[in-house]
Amino acid sequence: MMHKILVSRCLLGHRVRYDGGASGPFDQLANWLQEGRVVALCPEVAGGLPTPRAAAEIPGGQGLQVLAGKARVLTTEGEDVSAQFLSGAHQALELVKEHRIRVAVLKASSPSCGNLLTYDGTFTGVKVQGAGVTAALLAQHGVQVFSELQLAEAAAALAALSW
Ligand code: SF4
Fold it and tell me: What is the pLDDT of residues 25-48, one digit of tens each?
C-alpha cells in the first residue's frame, strides 16, 4: 500500500501561519504531493482560530502538559486558546487513524506542530526542548514526527515502513 503522510499546511505554501505567512516550497513535499501521499492540516485553523492570529506559547509547559490539562496555551494578549489547540490536535489524530498514517512532517518550533523544540512561554524568542500539542499527541500514538528540517529522515522512515 502507499503510505500517506500528515503535513503541516503552512509547509505547503498555505498562508495559515499566525502572521499570515507560509513556508516552503520544499521539493520533497512537492514530490509526495504529486504521489498523492499528503494529508494536509493546520491544527490551529482546524481548531477554529483565525489567520492572522495572535502568537501563542505554553508558559510553564509543553504540548504534553497541555494534553494532560496541566498547562495552558496563551496568546500574547493573554487569551486561553488551549481548547482550539486541543481540538486541532485531536483532528490530526483522527486523520492519522483514518489514513493509517505512521509518519508526519510538521513545522518546527510551533506550539502546535513543533516536534523537538517550542518556545518557552515568555514570548522572547527563547526555544526549549519539547513538542507542541499536536506533535505530542501524535507521538503518543506512535506516529514518527519530523519537521521540515528533517525531510531526509522523514523519507527514510517512510521507506522503512513494512506495511
Ligand atoms: S505550524 Fe502548524 S499550526 Fe502553525 S500554521 Fe503551520 S500548520 Fe498551522
Answer: 999 999 999 999 999 999 999 999
